[in-house]
Records
---
Amino acid sequence: SIDQAGEAVKAATAAFPAWSRTPIEKRQAIVNKIADALNANAAELARILTAEQGKPLPEAQGEIAWAEGYLRHTATMSLEMKVVQDDAAARVEVRRMPLGVVVGIVAWNFPMLLAAWKIGPALVAGNTIVIKPAPTTPAATLKLGALIKDIVPPGVINIIADDNDLGPYLTSHPAVAKVSFTGSVETGRKIMKSGADTLKRLTLELGGNDVAIVLDDVNVAEVAPKIFEAAMTNCGQVCIAAKRIYVQGAIYEEMAAALAAIAKDAVVDDGSKQGTRLGPLQNKAQYDKVRSLLDSARKQGGTVIGGETLDRPGYFLRPAIVKNVKEGTRIVDEEQFGPIAPLIRFEDDDDVVRRANATQYGLGGSVWSSNPARARKIAEQIEAGTVWINQHIAIGPHIPMAGAKQSGVGVEQGPEGLAEFTQVRVLSIAKSAA
Ligand code: NAD
C-alpha cells in the first residue's frame, strides 16, 4: 500500500546518515555478504524464480549465479578521490558522494539479476534503497529480503511489492534522490515526468529492438544455434535479445531453414522439467501482445513457421521464425519481447546499416561474419549502446551498459554505472593565506 511505501522511504531516509558514513570497505563487505546469501540459498531461490518467472531451471540457476557475481564485482569497486589540480594557486579535489535514498524499480524478466544491478552499486556508493519488484514477480526478491534481514543494517535495503500501483508514488516522492529503473520505454517516460518536480537523478534501462546482422560469409550451421539462443533465451523476454534478424540474400533460405529446424526441436514445457528449452511467457498481458504480433505478421504477408499455442493451461507458445517480413510491419518495427525471430532479407552492407538504424531504439545489436574487417565496418556504424561481433547478449559487471536513443538514459555497470549513484563534490582550496 501507499502507507507501506511511505514507511519504506522513511526507513531508507532514517538509515542514510549512518550508512553513508560507514566506511566503504564495510559497505563492500556487506554487499559481499548479500552475495554469500544468494550463493548459500541458490537452489531454493532458483526454484522460486522458475515458479514465478517461468524460465527453465538452469536459466534460473544461471540468473542467481549472475546476480551473485555482479554483487561481488561491484563490491571490488571503490570511489577514489581525484586531485584535478594542485599547483601554486590551488588544490582541487573531486569526491563522489552518495545521493541519499534510491528507488530501484525492476521488470519481470530478470527479477533477481536486475535487483542486484541496483542494490550493489547503490550500497557501495553509500546510498540506501527501496526496491520494487514487478507485480508478477515479487517472490524471489521478497525471499532475498528475508535472507538478508540480519546482514544489512535496518532501513538500508527495503523491498516493497505492489499491484503495479506504487511506481508513481515512489518516483515522485520528495525524499527520493534517484530512480534506477528497468522496464519499458513508456514507463520510462512517465518516470522522467514524475521525477521532474524534484529533479531526481535517473538511470533508465528501457526496451530495445536489437538487430542481428548476418552476412553471407558465415557458416550457417555454426551461427544459426547462436542466433536462436540470442533471440529465444528466457522465451525472448530479454531487453537485449536479437529482435530483428537481418540475413543477407545469398544465405537467407539456408539460415531460415536452420533456425526453423532448431525451433522445431525446442522443448516448450514447464521450466522445472528437465530438458525444457523454453518456458511459458511470464504473464498474460505479454502472452496476448506476442500472439497479436504473430497474427499481425501473418496478416501483413509474413510466413510464420511455428508459433503454435500449446493446448494446456499457461502461457505456452512454440518459438516462431517469421520469414518474408520487412520494415513497416509491426513484428519488425515493434519490440516483440517474446519467442519470435523475424528474418529480414538484405543485399547490401550500407543498406543494412541504414535500415538497422531507422528506429527509436538503440540498446544493442550484433554483426555476424567470418570477415573481421567487414564486420567491424558495419558494427562501428550501428547506433546502439552495445554492438557485438559474432556474439549477442554478452555482458558483464565490468562492462558499461547503456541505451542509446530512446532505449535509455545513463549507464549501468562498470565505473560509469557506479558513478551514477553519486553526486560530484568539489573541494577547492586556495593556496594563498586567508
Ligand atoms: P513496465 O515498464 O510495465 O514495468 C516495469 C516496472 O515498472 C514494474 O515494476 C512496474 O510495476 C513499474 N511501473 C509501472 N508503471 C509505473 C509508473 N507509472 N511509474 C513507476 N513505475 C512503474 O515494463 P515491463 O512490461 O514489466 O517490462 C518489459 C520491458 O522492459 C521491455 O520493454 C524490455 O525491453 C524492458 N527491459 C529493459 C531492460 C534493460 O536493461 N534495458 C531489462 C529488462 C527489461
---
Amino acid sequence: MDVLLEADSVCAGYGSVEVLHDVSLNVRAGEVVVLLGSNGAGKTTTVRALAGIVKPSAGGVKWLGDGAFKPLHKRVREGMALITEHRAIVASLTVEENLRLNPRSSVQRSLELFPELVPLGKRKASLLSGGEQQILVAARTFAAEPKLLLADELSLGLAPIIVTRLLRSVRMAAESGLGVLIIEQQVRAALSIADRGYVMQHGRIVLEGTAAELSARIEEIEATYLSGVKEMNVTNGQ
Ligand code: ATP
C-alpha cells in the first residue's frame, strides 16, 4: 500500500509551548488508522500538524512523498480532506446548496452515498439535527473522492446509530482506496472499523499496533483515559 502521509519525529506546539514530542506515524491508501488518547494528549495538535495548520518546530510531515511545508488549502487541493467536530456547513443554505459548496464533489454522488439526505435536500441546514449535519459534511467530503481523510471527532456528541453509520461510511470509503486517520473518543467503535492505531499520551505516541493488538489491550488504554495520568507500558504493539 502507498504511504500517503507520514510524520517523522514531529515536534510542534503553540508559541513557546511544545505539545508534540517526536511524533511519528503514517497513513497508507486504503486503510483506517485510529489515533487514541485522553483529553489533552495531543491528538488534535497532531492532526493540525499533519494538515498544515500547525508548523512543526522539528521533524517533518511528508504528504504524497513531499516533505515541504504546505498550508491546508494547498493540501486540500492535492486530495487531503479534513472533518472536525465543528461541522463545516452554512446554516442559512439548504442541504443541496451545502452539497454544492465543494467544487470537487457532485450533489448526485453525495446523495448516492448518503440516500438518507435525499428527503432533506430542500431543508435549511440550520434545521438539521447534529447527526444529519455531520452526515451532510461526510457526504460532501466522500463525494469529492479525496485521497486522504483526517477526521477529528467525527462523531462527537452524536447518537450511537449515527456514530455507527458514520464509521461504517469511513470503512466503506477506505475499501475504495481512501486513507483515513481518525480521532475518536469511542475507542471500541473506532477499533471495530480500523486497521491499525496509535495511542498518545502527553504529546507522545506510547503504543501502536493493529486494531486486534490494541483491542486486546483496550482496558489498559481506557484506564489512561479515566485517570489521565496512568502511564502506559510501552511496547509498540509488538
Ligand atoms: P481532546 O481529546 O481533549 O481534544 P487532544 O488529545 O486533541 O485533546 P490537543 O487539543 O491536541 O489534545 O491539546 C494538547 C495540548 O495542547 C493541551 O495541553 C492543550 O491545552 C494545548 N493546546 C491545544 N490547543 C492550543 C492552542 N490553540 N493554544 C495553546 N495551547 C493549546
---
Amino acid sequence: MAFKPANNIQDLQYFGEFGGVNPSVSDSSTYTFISAKTMFDTFEGNADGCYLYSRHSSPSNLYLGEALAAMEGSETATVTASGMGAITPVILQLCGVNDHIVSSRTIYGGTYAFLKNFTPKFNINTSFVDIIDLASVENAINNNTKMIYCESVSNPLLEVANIKALSKIAKKHNLKLVVDNTFSPLSISPINLGADIVIHSLTKFINGSSDTVAGVICGTQEFIDSLRNVNDGACMLLGATMDSLRASSVLKNLRTLHLRVQQHSFNATYLAEQFTKDGIKTVYPGLKSHPSHTVFTSMMNKKYGYGGMLTIDVGSTENANKLMEMMQDNNLGYLAVSLGFYKTLFSAPGSSTSSEIPDSERSEMGLSNGLIRFSVGLDADIERTYNKIKNCLISLQLLEKKKQDVVML
Ligand code: PLP
C-alpha cells in the first residue's frame, strides 16, 4: 500500500490542557516530582511519562517529534536546535575512535566540513564517494565502517541517492544508513525505503517561514533513547535542544506542509521546463534529462512532486552575481542562502553554502562557479514570475532576444 505521510500527520489528535485545539506549550525548564523515588527512576530512564529537565525532553518537543515520526514512518523522533544539531549527535553517537564513515561527496557544506575537519580530531575518518556509483560506495567500506551517510536529494547539485540500493549495501555490511531528507520532505520517505535514521533541517521546507533554525532525528525508539541517555547520549550531553515555544510553532507550520510542497513542486517544474526550452542548463529531478529522474520517480510519494529545488548554470560567477542582483531588484525573490520560504531564494553555492569544499574537489564533483541554486517559492502566478526572470536573462544577454520573447508585464 502507498505510504501516506501527510495522512499520518493529519491522523494525530491533540488536545490542549484546557481543551484547546493546539497542545499547550510547556513553558518550563524543570519539572516537579511528588516522590523522590520517581525522580531517581526518571534519571535512570525508567519512569515513562515523567519529565525531568527540558534539555532531556519536554511535552512540546515530544508532540513535534511524534508528528515528524508519523511523517517519516519511524518509531519515534527527537527534535533539536538546528539541522547541524541533529546531524552532529547522530554521527558522534554511532561512531567512536578509529571508526569510519562512507559519505556522499555532495552534501551540505556544513556537514562536509564536520566530517572533513572536525571528526578526524576523534580519529573518525570519512571516505567521500560519488553516491550514484554504488560500486564505489561498496568499495569504500572497510572493517571499521559504521555508517553510510547521504542526502536523499543533495545540496546543491540535486543528485538523488538510490536509498533502496544503498540500504541493501548497508544491511549486507551491517552498517547504518543515515539520510538527510531536508530537500525532499513528503516527496521521499527514506525509512520506508530502508534507511535506518532520517534527519531534517526543519529550518527549511518543514517550518517554511524562515524564522527559525531547527532539526529532527527520526529513528528507532532504542536509538532515540540512546541519544537522550543522561550518561552517554549525544543529544543530552552536547545540548543542542529545541526550545518548547519553538517546537509548538514548528508543529503549527507542519500542518500546511503538504500544500506548500505541492505548490513548490508545481512552480519548480514550470520554471525548470521553461528554462530548459530556452536552452539554459537546468538541473531538476523532475526533468527527464536528470540522470536520476527514474530513481526519484521510483522512490517518490507521487502527490508531492519533485520538490522545490532547481539549479541553473549561467557560465561564470560574474553572470550569476549580476542575475541574482537583478532578480532581487525586480522583487523575484531574495539573494539569500537557505530554502523552503514562500519567496524564491537564490544563491551561488560555490561562493556561499558550499564554500567549505576546496576548489579542486568542487570542480571534480561538477560544482561550477556559474551555478545558481533556486529554492522556488510559493508564487501564485509562476508564469508571470518566469516572464520576469526571462526579461532579466535577456537584458543581461544571457539569453538571446527573439521578437516573440519581448514580454509585456
Ligand atoms: N542539511 C541540509 C541539506 C542543509 O541544506 C542544511 C542547511 O543549509 C543543513 C542540513 C543544516 O541545517 P541547519 O542550518 O538548520 O543547522
---
Amino acid sequence: MDIAGKNVIITGGGRGMGKQFAVDLKELGAKPFVVDVIQENLDALKSETGIPGAVLDVTNEEAVEKFFEDYTAENGAPHALVNNAGITGDALFVRKKGDDIKKFAYDKFMKVIQVNLVGVFLCAREAAYQMIKNDVKGVIINISSISRAGNLGQTNYSATKSAVDAMTVTWAKELARYGVRAGAIAPGYINTEMVAKIDKEVLDKKIIPQIPAGRLGEMSEISEAVKFIIQNDFFNGRVLEVDGAQRI
Ligand code: NDP
C-alpha cells in the first residue's frame, strides 16, 4: 500500500514510540490521527507537528466503537491502525522474602490485560469493521514485544504480548478474504520513557549486556518496521522482530 494520503490511526501516540510513528508517517505523506488518554500530550503533539488527536481510553468498548464511527464519518475508514498503546505493571509471580510470601496482585495483572490485550482487540475489531464496511483494503499493526517469550517479572505483560501475536495470526487468516492484513512488530528494548523507568543500574549492568547489538534500539528503527508493514502487501500474519539480536 502506498503510504501517501492514507488514513492511519495510532493508539497511545501522545508520546513515546506512537508519537514517533505519527511524525514519521506524516513525513511520508500519510494522514496520521492519534488517540491517547492525556489531553495535554495530544495538545502538545498538535502544536508541535500539526497532527490531530483525540482522547480515547482503548479499554472502553463503547468509547472505542463511537470513536471509530465518528472518525470514519469524518475522514473515511482508516487504511491502517497501529495498536501501540501499552503499559507495564511488573511484579514477581510469587515471592518469598524471609517469612513473607507476596503474590502477584490481581488488579495489577488485570490492568495490563485490559490495556494491552482488550484494548488491542477492541481497536482492531472496530478498525476491521470500518475497513470491511467501506471496502477499504487496510492493515492492522499490533505492537508486541520481545517479552512475549516470557520474561521474569512480567507475567501479565508477557501474556498480553504473546496473545497479541496469536490474535495477529488469527486476524490475518480471517480477514485476508476482505483484503485486510494484520502484522505485528516485537521490539526489543527501545530508548523510550518506558525503558527510562527501568533502574539505571539494571539497564547498564543487566539489560544492555544481553543485547548483542550493544545498545538500545531507537524509536526510528521501529518506525521503519511500521512503514515496511504498511507498504508490503505480501507481509501478513507474521511478527517482525526488531531487537538487536537479543533473546529473552
Ligand atoms: P509509552 O508509555 O511511552 O507510550 C504508551 C502510550 O499509551 C502513552 O501515551 C500512554 O498514556 C498510552 N496509553 C496507556 N494506556 C492507554 C489507554 N488505556 N488508552 C489509550 N492510550 C493509553 O510506551 P512506549 O512508547 O515505550 O511503548 C509503546 C508500545 O511499544 C507499547 O505497546 C509497549 O508495550 C511496546 N514496547 C515497548 C518497548 C520499549 O522498549 N519501550 C519494547 C517492546 C515493546 P500515558 O501517557 O498516560 O502513559
